[in-house]
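Thread: "does anyone have the structure for this chain?"

Original post by V.I.:
We have the sequence but no experimental structure in hand. Need at least a predicted one for the grant figures.
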Amino acid sequence: MPEMGRSQLVVYAAVAVALLLVGARAIRGEQAAEPSFAAASGGSGGSSFSVGGPSGDMVVHVAGAVRRPGVYRMPAGSRVNDAVRRAGGAVRQASLEAINLAARLADGQQVVVPEAGPGGVVAAAAAEEGPISLGTATVEQLEEIEGIGPVTAADIIEFRDEHGGLSSVDQLDQVPGIGPATMESLRARLQP
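Reply from O.Q.:
Generated one for you, tokens below.
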């Protein structure tokens, strides 16, 4: 086998370094830039869906009183506060006190930032408006569900906070006092 000359070694080393730099830049670009596809929606906000990123990421939907409502890819271990910031932050009318900003996010979770009405009162969602987000549900919202009283609602919030969020309504069957009938009510009114 013939020996390589010094100029050949320099060329091969330069090519190897260039490939390493391009690879590192591509990996860093996927994590930092996270390109997204934006689709216009009615109203003042759009929705976006980020692609790429490590397999430990999760996808969450941020809605309500935020600057850029949409679907976002978040790193594992992120908190509700991180998702709100990712959506451009809360608008002036937002009532951030009505949600738990410290709760851990779960894949597929919807974070709804409520808007404060006149006098700072948070308007409660009517039952007909659809399911309540398990990740951001308040004690008052949970009490509206058939079979849930103040004690069980508080137990659900405590269970959710202790477990860093919940990825499924079915996990609530581990909460004491929740039987099969209550689980059916929860499935009908809550979403992860």
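V.I.: this helps a lot. The beta strands are 36-40, 46-50, 58-64, 70-74, 110-113, 132-133, 190-191.
O.Q.: and The chain has three domains: 1-33, 36-120, 124-192.
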